[in-house]
Amino acid sequence: MLIYILPYYIENLGDGCKIKDEKGERIVSVKITNLLKSILKERMLDFREVKRKSKRILNQRNIIPLYIGDGEILLPVKVRRPKVLRDEVYGYVNFYFIDKIEDGQIILKDGQVINYLESKRCLSRRIKMVSLLEREFCDKIKSNYFNLDDPATKGDIMFLLKEIIDIKRLLDR
User: Fold this and answer.
1) Which of 94, 126, 134 is nearest to 110 (CA)?
2) Residue 11 has what pLDDT?
3) Chain centroid to CA 121: how far?
4) What tens digit of pLDDT does each residue of 19-38 get?
5) Spans of all domains in the chain
6) With contact defined as beta carbons under 8 Å apart, do 54 and 64 qualify?
7) The pLDDT value given to residue 1
8) Strands across the sheet containing 98-102
9) Which domain of life is it from (predicted)?
10) Residue 127 host element (H or E)
11) Do 57 and 133 meet the contact criterion of CB atoms below 8 Å apart?
């Protein structure tokens, strides 16, 4: 379970990112987009397809939340000022781990504080986008609606695989 991915400048190396998940917090010398691509690839999801679906649902092109799965919607947050051209300034925080949002700070459920550099209004607008994504994907899951005329996407196959694994766990108990 991913908690956050934040841009981080590594001395004498350049761009990297700070990641926190169930394994703990660590710093890697990989850009955020490349790290997100590899994380989604491990989960059998295509990064471009996740972004494309989110863009279509939200009807927005840039700085959009990403729906990864149940309990994981990554909220983009501006956490630093760019030092050079093409510098990554947006990090991603799992929406479900946010306890509260104050002016300039996001407080996580474990008490950790993440400072952000944008208006609270922009952040609240993205939180509304998160609720739209959540509603769209949960409605699809609850209604078990699959258009059989469309080809199955990796996300559809991942959803079915998750359902099979959940059913198998229930039967094993």
Assistant:
1) 94
2) 85
3) 20
4) 999 889 999 999 999 999 99
5) 2-144
6) yes
7) 86
8) 98-102, 105-108, 113-115
9) Bacteria
10) helix 120-143
11) yes
